[in-house]
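Might I ask for a little of your time on a matter of protein folding? Here, with my thanks, is the record as I have it:
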Amino acid sequence: MIRNEIVDKVALEILSIFKPKADITISEWADQNRVLSPEASAEAGKWRTDKAEYLRGIMDAFCDPKIHTIVVMSSSQVGKTEVINNVVGYHIEHDPAPILVVQPTVDPMAKAWSKDRLAPMLRDTPSLRGRVKEARSRDSGNTITHKSFAGGHISIVGANSPAGLASRPIRIVLCDEVDRYPNSAGAEGDPINLAFRRAETFFNRKCGIFSTPTIKGASRIEAAFDTSDQRRFFVPCPHCKTPQILTWSNVIWDKKTSADGKEVIENYPQTTRYYCKECGAAWDDKERIAAVKKGEWIAAKETTGIAGFWINALYSAWKPLSSRVEEFINAKKDGAESLKTFINTTLGESWEIGGDKADETELLKRVELYDTPDPIVLITAAIDTQDDRLELKIMGWADKEESYILDYVIIAGSPANDRVWQELDLQLDREWDGLRIARLFIDSGGHNADQVYKWAKRNEHKGFFAIKGNSDFNAPIIQRPKRLNTSKYKPLLWSLGVSTAKEQLLYRLLQIKEPSAGYIHFKKNLCDETYFKSLTSEKLVTKWAMGKATRRWELTKGARNEAWDLLVYNFAAMKSLNPSWEALKRYKENALIAAKKAAQDKEKPAPVKPLKRRASGFITAYK
């Protein structure tokens, strides 16, 4: 009896592959079947495409026989991931096929999508329930990253894994967050090209590319969108009916400005409205959301098989425009990185740095005379090792990463000589208004690695560490340190995303020209012409090879870049501490109060409670 039931079930699965398919699009399938899971959605329950009408055209492009590639350049939180989920769900139930989902990394991102997005959908959508087996460690055909179903399978891989990108034929390829992909999957080449090659033999292939954009001129998703038919979502004005794209320049709110009108003293986000570009009428959120439901996709170019879609968060019904304005105001206060995040993830636009290198003449005009500025609450240091010297730069940091060059010391002599390291120790055994160096990074590249590792191991308890640079533009500035067991000294080695750090610092040098969050102060008589030539010794260039843009930093011929590298290492040292500026300010205030009281009482200063740190050394709080 049991055997007959199994045979019947298998027979039904086989027949389902060959039965005629109903004429149904992905958006129609989602409206009829999809259920949003509580742990994966802010609004759990039955899916409704009309809640985000702009998603309909994106999903249905995957059913259009004239389209083979779909490009989606968008802000975050507009439903992009749900499009991927619905495409997968549709093909599991309605049009079985081998499917490949590519995330930036295998672990954690590919596994996280499988566990946090795919598994809940398979569990809570009735028409999908039971079609894909549960992940079982003993069944290689059904794991977290590979699942089989009648007529097809899903492979979930990382763009950093060449093996996962170059095996079986695939008909449906879905590449998510492509701007976070590495330049190459190992030594195999571009991850997107590797994935797309797997679909070449299918006449009815569908390849999807999804991402928020990053840097202008080097964004994978922006380059892909430029080759598409460039569709944008036009919505009619509720008052004059003129179709238009929703843009940030038309989001307006009341402000209180200074007498000369140059400075905003106070913002009033609650007054935010969207203003029609044609008639000037103000839309409230209710009118904006209603207008989006009546919108349509319009292509800028003729379609040649690649459909491109661009959408931003202004179309979303899930947040009022006043919240977007608050995000923007806070991003401007918090500095360049926060503003870049807003441009990328809220407006769905690429970030333009504004140049490929800083101007040494302009920077020289910014030198100031100071000793130890009062706002400083954190000290970092960085060391560059050369065959005949050590170069040391010490920096002070204030609220919201405003920084000051405090000292620049060159210690002449070979690093093989113990005297050089002894002199370095003396330079580091200093205080600046009671503050000592909280974190120091020393470069371990070059011919002096053993001496660096020996010194760094001896000074780990002080927060002094050896570093190794990673030039990949997708590498985070800071990665968790690892014990270097291949060295006899076994130091803790930190990996730094130096290209990423340089990019952020270049923006600060070019765009932040007045003291504020992220501004860099240069000390007079320390930062001279030679210093600024070194600081501006590299430029950011974009090279094209086989139709793909790659970026790299190029050193000006004959120039030295020690000052630039040391700024990068100090910046990374500060980032590695993940400082709480409010906690550090309280710590310094308490230390000054204690010192003042001791001076008045002619006693030894009362001890100040130390900063609380996690085991990794990250500053988190003051108690």
Q: What stands out?
A: Residues 15-20, 612-623 have pLDDT under 50 and may be disordered. Residues 581-601 form the longest helix (21 residues).
